[in-house]
């Protein structure tokens, strides 16, 4: 079976992704209400009882809104590093001690035949992380809420077959937008969010024969659009001499209000 995944929701209103192989089904973040997460799981023919655990990237509400409720409803273990646990405990309510699992930043953990690697990223949270998933020769990487793409993060993402990567905002739309300047400065800073241009710059370095497609994620509803994000990412890549055909590499959509289709990492 290999690795399959669906991005149930992506954006500032809530983030949830499900990754599975033949033995294990994991959820990354639970940034919507438990009711909404159940609805989206149902749309992809998954039940809460099938989930084996929840991996947390960081403590911001658009990533943990339904975390406590979902974990309690289905008696699920939650995996997060110690600083993230400290930052989110008051927000998620009481969690059974056996379901409170510390997974350190940089740790590699096996869930049956599905291997998960956590790695640190730059964002204005306690100790934010992203994740890579491995099954045999397959590699899926999920990385959003990136202030900037460090060499260490690029190394973690290298050799991915499929990526879910942040393309949060168009820089000019953000600068002209309605947000106060202090919030704009935060988003544009090294501990904020990755712009369309920055996503393209990173992909121009990460695009190898192994990388088949990238889902652009965590788009701002105020300062971005999917068509604009795709166009800017393509232009940014081409400006750096990175030319490709859709048959060789694809940019794919994510949505804030509906899930992506199941994608098998092994598919061309």
From TrEMBL:
Coiled coil: none annotated. SMART domains: Lactamase_B. It catalyses: 3',5'-cyclic UMP + H2O = UMP + H(+); 3',5'-cyclic CMP + H2O = CMP + H(+). Signal peptide: none annotated. Gene3D superfamilies: Ribonuclease Z/Hydroxyacylglutathione hydrolase-like. Residues 13-218 form the Metallo-beta-lactamase domain. It holds the Pfam family Lactamase_B. It comes from the Bacteria. Counteracts the endogenous Pycsar antiviral defense system. Phosphodiesterase that enables metal-dependent hydrolysis of host cyclic nucleotide Pycsar defense signals such as cCMP and cUMP. PANTHER family: EXODEOXYRIBONUCLEASE WALJ (PTHR47619:SF1), METALLO-HYDROLASE YYCJ-RELATED (PTHR47619). This is MBL fold metallo-hydrolase. It comes from Paenibacillus dokdonensis.
